[in-house]
Amino acid sequence: MKRRTFGTLALLSTAAGVTVEPAAALAADTAPIGFASLNALGQNGTTGGAGGRTVTVSTTDQLLTAIDSLEKLVIQVQGRIQIESKKGVRPNKTVIGLPGAEITGGGLDFYRSYNVIVRNILFTDAEDDAINVGQNSHHIWIDHNTFRGAIDGSVDIVRGADYVTVSWNHFDHSDKSMLISHSDGAAGTDVGHLKVTIHHNFFDHSRQRHPRVRFGEPVHVYNNYFLANDLYAVASTENAGVLVEGNYFEDVPFTVYSASGYADSGPGRAVARNNVFVRSGTPEVSGTVVEPRTYYAYTVDSPAGIPAAVRAGAGVGRI
C-alpha cells in the first residue's frame, strides 16, 4: 500500500484493508493511490515518463511535439501555453508543470493511451474538455492540477477507459467537473470498465458532475471537499456502482443521486458512509457496490479535517 507521511498520528480504526486516520497537512504522493496504482492490462502501475529523458517546453509547438512523441518522456511545462481543441498524449509520459505553468484554450486527450501522469498544471478556458480520458485508455493519474473555465468537462473519463486516479485537484468554479461514461447508450464499451478513484479533490463552487457516473464500478469517491455545488455533487446512474466515503459536504443541497437516476439517465447504485454534511442534503443511497478494497488497500482521513487538508494541499503549487 502506498502511504503518505503523517508523522506520529495515531490510527483511529482499521478494517479489511481500509485505514482511517486524522486528516493533516499531507505530503504529496509520489505515486498514485487507487486504481492507477494497480498492475493490470499489462501495465505495472502508473509511472509515466520515469526512466526517460526530461524535456522542458515553453511554446505550443514544443508541447505538441513532446506529447506526440513515441519516446518515454518527462515533459516539464514552463509558462503559459496556448493550444486549441484537444491534443493527443501518447503513452509513457509525465506532463508536469513548473511553477506558474498554464495550458489555456484547449486540453489534453487520451486515445488508446496508457501510463500517463498529468500534474501541477493550471488548465484555463478549454474550448471543449480540459482533460479527456477515452477510447480504452488506462493507467492515467491526474494529480494536483487546477481547472477553471472549461466549456465542457474539466475531466471526462469515457469510452472504456480504466484504472484512473484523480487526486488533489482544485475544480475552481467549474460547471461540468467530471463525467464518467459519456452516454446512456455506451453500455457496450463501458460495462466492466471505468474503474476510477477520486480522492482529496476540492470541488469549489463547481456546479455539477463530481462525478456523474454511468456503468462504472467501483467508482470510489473518498475524502473530497464539496463546497456550494448548486446543482448536485455525485450522481450514480445506469447501474453504476459508486462508493461515497469520508467526504465533507458543505452547502450542497443535493449530495448524491442514485435510485432516482438523474436527468434522462436510469438509476444507479450508491453506498455512502462516514461522510460529514453541513447545511447539505441527505444522500440518496441504493443497493450495494463492489468494495474498492477488493482491488487495493487505502487510507481514509477523518472527514472532519478534510476542508483544512484539501484547502492546504489541492491544486497547483502543492507538490
UniProtKB/TrEMBL annotation:
It is found in: Secreted. GO terms for biological process: polysaccharide catabolic process. Transmembrane segments: none annotated. SMART domains: Amb_all, PbH1. The keyword Signal applies. Residues 1-27 form the signal peptide. InterPro entries: PbH1, Pec_lyase, Pectin_lyas_fold, Pectin_lyase_fold/virulence, PEL. GO terms for cellular component: extracellular region. Keywords: Carbohydrate metabolism, Lyase, Polysaccharide degradation, Secreted, Signal. GO terms for molecular function: pectate lyase activity. Residues 50-255 form the Pectate lyase domain. Belongs to the polysaccharide lyase 1 family. This is Pectate trisaccharide-lyase. It comes from Virgisporangium aurantiacum. The gene is pelA.
